[in-house]
């Protein structure tokens, strides 16, 4: 049993149309950690987080979440998932979108109303809650998607590129919120290809061409490669000489 | 130069989208083929029963004119007319020809009347006129009364199919379907949610179409309005489940529209809007796999012949079976995203 780890990935591989998308990936993430998956687009980050979120199948290996083998319907309640594309209903307004998803997670009545107000203020969208999503900017949609993933106060947050299109000020405040959540015991798995966000993660996993090429703390990874920046460390692990 | 680049781009895009290319060339051929089967079929052979009083000479004349003729008593003939096995019953009484027509298809009635006229030309030079009666319908029943019930079903099917298909497709392509599957929502809950949500609109649509056809267009209505609603609703459910299922095989709205000539149009030809009996026999089985066939049969029964619940129960049962099968297939298809 790997109960000490909230997320445990063992030897996971995925082939898609004869091409290896993920090759024998293993990683363990303890409670309260913010783990960042770093890599270029097409590296397989999204495929990996979808598998952990239970909406993609691995051909080999296994994934455990809170000690339970995935995919498992009951575990969906413990996961807050934010997809790379904003999965929102364009004809509905922000409030209606949140109400819909909150109901899927079993939130009703005053608890639902209170929680929706909380997440709206968290992502700074309280004043825009009656606008339809069609009128939202890219950044506003990202924020609302994040709000949706936080609705049911999940133990595990899986965020796929959460800060794309969000301005630096708001990005700061979102990271502050992620920090606060992690201190309260939420485990956060976040993918990014923005290097400056990588520093804010407790630990990083570097993915390239479906391989986990390195994992460790940002400082540790830079030290090991004698690099000045995460970017440089990434290139060195990838075997690209400068 | 820019135009050339645009032309090349369009050709390349088409080459990538082989389905649309196939549709562009094959669908018109398919539809033309179907229409040729429908309209070039053999001419209709009226089926007659004649009473004992009808002289043999007249029977010979009917057969010469190409009719299928059998002898029957009046009660036997009426049963045969009700079951649709014969088109008309001819009896002679005191030298007067009595004609009883089944009557629900005006084109069949016309061909029987024509046959009778032709047959009697040589036999009764004094121009004896037969007395004509109708079991269903009436002499003034128009072709629209005959195919109207099929159209009521067809429009319900067509729009529910397209709308639900596109809505489910958007859910797929917009990423919200995946997002739904990342919640504790069960796969069948998604499918039934759609069924209920669209079902509500289908009810309104059924009410509107049936009401408009009967009260505004003055379509013939011999039976119960509630049965008409029930049939259109059951058909809409079939359209809904089929539309959402097939949306899995379309990657955008345009590809969804491409299902219309493949799934919707053939049903028009094979559901009884055109007389199936003039069609090549080896093709007739196609009508049995088309949901619209059963709805059209039930709607015609209720609206023209005024039949009740017992006579359309089988049709409704088949429609339910279609819906259940399509919904189950859809629930299974969602396993592609999430195994549980």
Description:
- The complex is a heterodimer of chains A (242) and B (340).
- Chain A has helices at 45-53, 94-104, 109-122, 138-150, 168-183, 195-198, 218-225, 230-237, and strands at 5-16, 19-30, 34-38, 60-65, 68-69, 79-82, 156-160, 187-192, 203-208, 211-216.
- Chain A is α/β, with parallel strands linked by helices.
- Chain A has a 6-stranded mixed β-sheet, sandwiched between helices.
- The termini of chain A are far apart.
- Chain B folds into 2 domains: 47-134, D-Maltodextrin-Binding Protein, domain 2; 143-336, no CATH class.
- In chain B, helix 9 packs antiparallel against helix 12.
- The termini of chain B are far apart.
- The model of chain B has no long low-confidence stretch (mean pLDDT 85).
- The chains are: A alpha/beta (242), B alpha/beta (340).
- The A-B interface holds A 50, 53-57, 71-74, 76-77, 79, 81, 83, 85-90, 101, 104-106, 148 and B 174-176, 178-186, 337-340.
SSE topology sketch:
The complex is a heterodimer of chains A (242) and B (340).
Chain A: E1 5-16, E2 19-30, E3 34-38, H1 45-53, E4 60-65, E5 68-69, E6 79-82, H2 94-104, H3 109-122, H4 138-150, E7 156-160, H5 168-183, E8 187-192, H6 195-198, E9 203-208, E10 211-216, H7 218-225, H8 230-237
Parallel strand pairs in A: 3-8, 3-9, 6-7, 7-8
Antiparallel strand pairs in A: 1-2, 1-4, 4-5, 9-10
Helix pairs in contact in A: 3-4, 7-8
Chain B: H1 2-16, H2 18-39, E1 47-50, H3 56-64, E2 68-71, H4 74-82, E3 88-93, E4 96-101, H5 106-121, E5 131-134, H6 143-173, H7 176-181, H8 187-216, H9 225-246, H10 253-257, H11 259-270, H12 291-305, H13 309-333
Helix pairs in contact in B: 2-11, 3-5, 6-8, 6-9, 6-11, 6-12, 8-9, 8-13, 9-12, 9-13, 12-13
